[in-house]
Amino acid sequence: MPKTNALPLIEPPATTAAVAACCPPLTERPFTADEAETAARMFKALGDPVRLRLFSAVASHEGGEACVCDISDVGVSQPTVSHHLKKLKEAGLLTSERRGTWVYYRVEPSVLAAMGRLLTIAPAAA
Fold it and tell me: Which residues contact residue 72 at a Cβ distance below 8 angstroms, ignoring those fewer than 6 apart?
């Protein structure tokens, strides 16, 4: 039998880690200035209907990633799609990888977990 070696795990990008540790649930305690800045950046990026559609298209795409060629049909021109995807990346909501001509986008599970945690109700203190 051939000898196989396990591949090392790749660390998530720094922006993903920053989003994952973003903020406590809104009902837990008031945000610090930094937490409010981070959460506002995420919500601002998602506040545009085209960006929200693109984010949803990537998040729901089979295999957890989507080629820009598969998600660009959102009713705006391709340069506008690129602009919106750039804004989602700058907010830490998407990561991307170029493969030849195409760029593939992913929503890291930690980003969705952080957003979900932010909008949950904190457990009552015992």
Answer: 78, 81
Distance (Å, whole) CA 65 – CA 92: 15
- The model carries a pTM of 0.73
Cβ neighbour number for residue 38 with a 10 Å cutoff: 21
- Taking the CA atoms of residue 25, residue 18, residue 88 and residue 82 in that order, the dihedral angle to the nearest 10 degrees is -170
Helix axes 78-90, 49-60, angle to 10 degrees: 80
Per-residue pLDDT tens over the stretch 67-106: 998 888 888 998 999 999 999 999 989 999 999 999 999 9
Phi-psi map region of 7: left, alpha, beta (phi>0 left; psi -120 to 50 alpha): beta
**Cβ partners under 8 Å of residue 69, min gap 6:** 102
